[in-house]
Amino acid sequence: MDINNxxxxxxxxxxxxxxxxxxxxxxxxxxxxxxxxxxxxxVDLPGVEVLPLDITDPASVRAAxxxxxxxxxLVNNAGISxxxxxxxxxxxxxxxxxxxxxxGHLHMIREFAPTLAGNGGGAIVNVLSAMSWFGGKxxxxxxxxxxxxxxxxxxxxxxxxxxxTLVTAVHLGLADTDMAAGxxxxxxxxxxxxxxxxxxxxxxxxxxxxxxxxRDVKSRLPLTPEEFNAAMGRALADLMAA
Length: 242
Prior knowledge:
The chain is of the alpha/beta class and 242 residues long. The protein contains seven helices and seven strands, in the order βαββαβαβαβαβαα. It has helices spanning 16-27, 58-67, 91-118, 140-160, 190-202, 212-219, 225-241; strands spanning 7-10, 32-37, 49-52, 73-76, 123-127, 166-171, 207-209. A seven-stranded parallel beta sheet has the order 3-2-1-4-5-6-7, with helices on both faces. Helix 3 links the parallel strand 4 and strand 5. The longest helix has 28 residues, at 91-118.
């Protein structure tokens, strides 16, 4: 798929990675970029077409699909991190995070799949995380939601192959955004993450490992759980000490 002359819709485009996606899409020649947010007045990027969208509200998702019938590239970026654990954290918070980070993306895919098919197939980008593959105290709800979103992405990729829709999973460690502001470690620039993802779409890739951290985590998956947890513990200690 060629980003130039595409019509893209980006969720959570008012800040962070979503804003960077929308900006790089414009700079790379997209014909139109729908920038969506729950509060559309917070989108401040010139040149985009702003739409209100709450990905956890099926009616809002349906309205966005009706308002954007020319989309050929869907970027599922919107997400939350609540800092909640699974055993001791409030279950309603865990459910809300899952509704946003997995079911929200799935709502978008289900509504926009016919649009993409009608526009030649197109592509979907799901912004995931290296935490699709590992957890940690204070972030296990997030790990659950990203692992579920990874499995969902792998499933819809198979289901949408017949209509010619590319589904690209994008994994990263930390990006230099508000969500990661409290982590004093190396982070990928949002524009670099957006470029890595869009380069992957143009190359027809099913998966993009956008930084060294995500590549390292993925490489450890063949280990036993005990070996994996020990390796991740050492890696996290080294990361914080750097």
